[in-house]
Write a structure and sequence with these properties.
Blueprint: H1 6-13, E1 18-19, H2 20-27, E2 31-32, E3 40-41, H3 42-46, E4 53-54, H4 57-67
Antiparallel strand pairs: 1-4, 2-3
Helix pairs in contact: 1-4
Protein name: DUF2795 domain-containing protein
């Protein structure tokens, strides 16, 4: 499952407020697929959190987003307004 799809999953499968145990039991084994690299599970991500209760699907999604790590972000240091950092010789100014 792609990361943006998890918010809808949480809203459909869980009743909020939801405890950490309810989240892990209901959706914990769902695999998350990064743009490139090895997939992980919601359980593996949530296990890094100290939060015991989630008030809404948005709260749970926000927590997940904070914990997934850089491999879910896409190209690191990408800037569609210019080049890569340290690439000043190829920089174009309009």
């Amino acid at each position: 499952m792609r990361l943006p799809e998890t918010r809808d999953l949480f809203a459909r499968k869980l009743q909020f407020p939801a405890s950490r145990d309810e989240v892990l039991e209901t959706v914990g084994d769902t695999e998350l697929s990064p743009p490139d690299g090895e997939s992980t599970t919601i359980r593996a991500v949530i296990d890094r959190s100290d939060v015991e209760t989630y008030g809404s699907a948005d709260d749970l999604y926000d927590e997940l987003m904070m914990l997934v790590g850089a491999r879910f972000v896409g190209r690191r240091y990408y800037d569609d307004r210019g080049g890569m950092p340290g690439d000043e010789e190829n920089e174009v100014s309009f």
